[in-house]
Amino acid sequence: MKELKVQYEKVLSDYLLNQNESNLYIGQNLVRQLMKNNISPEDLVSIHKQSMENIVPNLPEEVLNSFDFLIEVMVHFGLKLKEHQSLLLKQEEIRIEMEIAAKIQNLLLETKIPKPNGLDIGMVSVPVRKMNGDYVHFMHDDEKYFSVAITDVVGKGVPAALCMSMVKYGLDTLEYANSNPSYVLEVLNRIIEKSVDDSMFVSMFYGRYDLENDIFTFGSAGHEPALYYNSKEQTFTDLDSKGLLLGVLPEIKYSQTDIHLSENDFIIMVTDGVTEFRNMKNFDSRTYIKELAKSLRHLSAQEMYDKIFENLNKLNNFRLTDDFTIVIIKKY
């Protein structure tokens, strides 16, 4: 410490005598030694004050007092700087962990779109954050049955992702696509109610399609109603099936409903991130999507989604505020 004080005073004295780039450069290099020896900002100001008193005798009292004031300021500045640096370090650690967790979630929840005979399927899920709170699960059995679950966890981030993993586990245990939607929802409800925190709830729309008889059977656990388009009548119907969110109460019964699909009929399943735009309060998103989908009915299911999302992005003030998931099932 004593050597550094002497060195600093020498460098400062040289600079005051000859204010040139060379002396300034030497002073800048001295910073590395100060940092290496853990010299705090307030200690550096104190060293500077002592050096000035030796170099310039009889400094005005006001100047000396200003150094004392600066020392006090630097003490608090140094503490706040350390807190800030520590916070930045923690934020970076969290960012890296979140990226790893998001990659793991993508691997665990990866969804392959099946290609059952007579159906055209399109889907996409866009997370608003790193971790996705929406999940789509498909099952397809021997060309007889095809089923789909579209799920939304009430919550965001890592807790929602962990809860979603539990949902996937529950769906995987069911194995077969011919299970009744009411039965599937009741099983998942018991699993989630026992396995996740009381503050976490899950909404789900579950549909099973009988490929031989073209019957779509569906049930819902507090989920956004799907949209069914009847091509013959050129009308939309909301597929609304009343049911409590999964995980609220253990012994809940869920109802199911059948509809018949004809050629060119289609069903649009969504999460509330598609229909609730908080920054567009007076915008009727469901009506807009119905009209848009009707005008795009000649396209494939995936092309329909692409155009729907493209047109939504063109709207003024459109901004995703929630995870955005659409599944389109089209009968051909």
UniProtKB/TrEMBL annotation:
InterPro entries: Bact_Sigma-Reg, KaiA/RbsU_helical_domain_sf, PPM-type-like_dom_sf, PPM-type_phosphatase-like_dom, PSer_Pase_RsbU_N. Signal peptide: none annotated. GO terms for molecular function: phosphatase activity. It comes from the Bacteria. Keywords: Hydrolase. Residues 116-331 form the PPM-type phosphatase domain. The keyword RNA-binding does not apply. Gene3D superfamilies: KaiA/RbsU domain, PPM-type phosphatase domain. The keyword Hydrolase applies. Pfam families: RsbU_N, SpoIIE. PANTHER family: PHOSPHOSERINE PHOSPHATASE RSBU, STAGE II SPORULATION PROTEIN E-RELATED. This is PP2C family protein-serine/threonine phosphatase. It comes from Ureibacillus terrenus.
